[in-house]
Amino acid sequence: MIQQTGVAIALLRNPPSASCTTITITDGTTTSSEIVKDHLGKSAWNQWQVMTTFELDTKKRNISINDGLSKLIPLARQVRLLSWCSMVVVVSLDPDFLVAFAEWSLKGRLLVWTTKLVVVTRLTIPQLQALLSAHWTFSMMNTVFLNIEGESKQPRRCVMYVYRYGMYTYLPYSINGAQMVKIAFWTTAHGFKHISSVSYFNDKFENFYGAKVSVTSGTYMPYWDEEEVLAADGSKTIVYRGSDYRMVDAIASVLNFTVRVLPTSSWSEVTKLVEEHTSLISPILHGFLPERVKKFDFTYIYENAYLSFGMAKPDLEPRWKSVYYPLSTGVWTAMIGHVNNCILFINLQQYNVIDKHHKPTKHCIPQLIRAGHGEHPNVGVGTVFQDMVGMLLGQNLPRRVSYTSSSRVLVAAWLVFALILGLAYRGNLTASLTLPKYPPRPETLMEIVDHVNM
């Protein structure tokens, strides 16, 4: 039996698989240590590779094959899930063990299409053909059989001396229909010899050769819809529409099969027929949920669905607010505060100013912007505030400006400030009036709750 495992390992390593885990399952006729020893001796360990061996000895444990595999398969599946890629080798000469493995590997979801399965056994051709055609694991999955080709009179204990193995696979879809084919044989002297156009691990679903493929789906627009129409001859036909049907129809045209829609009454029946392998395809929107992961294997997400909400466009706020929008609240606050601070500063301090007759007189600092005259040498704070705001709004300068250089510098600085602020305001005002500003709209669920009118 060591030789049998070596043949399977040689097949799996030809060509070598990068960093894949080999899961070996035996029925107890070969010890785990012998398999590991044979694997180490026959494999080219040019990369880090892992091998996991499960041995089910029903006689030693005094349990049935089904009970043993029901506990073994979940453990093997955990190894497969934790591996970057995996390959499974099953070694058994017992047809009952192989039948039980086919059933429990399907129930326990041990295999996916990318998982290579090699079964090493010794059966007659009629037994082998019946076994492959009867079980989904062997007929539809990525499986090959290495069958020992020896004399039928040779006792089973002499397996070590058998040196020729035939390699078989099952093609569910071919030009000649479903059939088992021999693709190669292996000998100790020459290794593998390919004798067929079919590759070792052939893609069984690349071409359906016009076969009818069962499809199940439920009415759910815009994905799937069914309508019964009356033909010209009086017969009734069902017309299918929707994005899912168009997708299946496009796949059928490329892979060369005919769509046969099976009638269903509920969504649970749709998935149930797929689980029972009555239907091969179910083009329904099957969301990736934790509850479904426990039941199905998700291999590839082909459509991303997003949840969103729609709202009416917000009404425009009153137009008079457009005069406020050109400048931000911070700029408005800084400008008003700057004007008030200047007025306060002017009102609190006094200086001696030389008048035009070269006589020192005591004036308030408002004299720095507007010069007094006649009986009113001092200028009031209100008048200065009016002058400052007027210059800010683009009005003329005061008719009488103070004689000192400091006052003229102050007026010039204020004019520059008013010019910059005025240009910025007028430019933004034009844009604000041309492109009205809509109020902010809620973007999250919390904002929607806050904006609901109760």
Automatic annotation (TrEMBL):
SUPFAM superfamilies: Periplasmic binding protein-like II. It is found in: Cell membrane. Its main location: membrane. This is Ionotropic glutamate receptor C-terminal domain-containing protein. GO terms for cellular component: plasma membrane. The keyword Thylakoid does not apply. It is a multi-pass membrane protein. The lineage of its organism: Eukaryota, Metazoa, Ecdysozoa, Arthropoda, Crustacea. Keywords: Cell membrane, Glycoprotein, Membrane, Receptor, Transmembrane, Transmembrane helix.
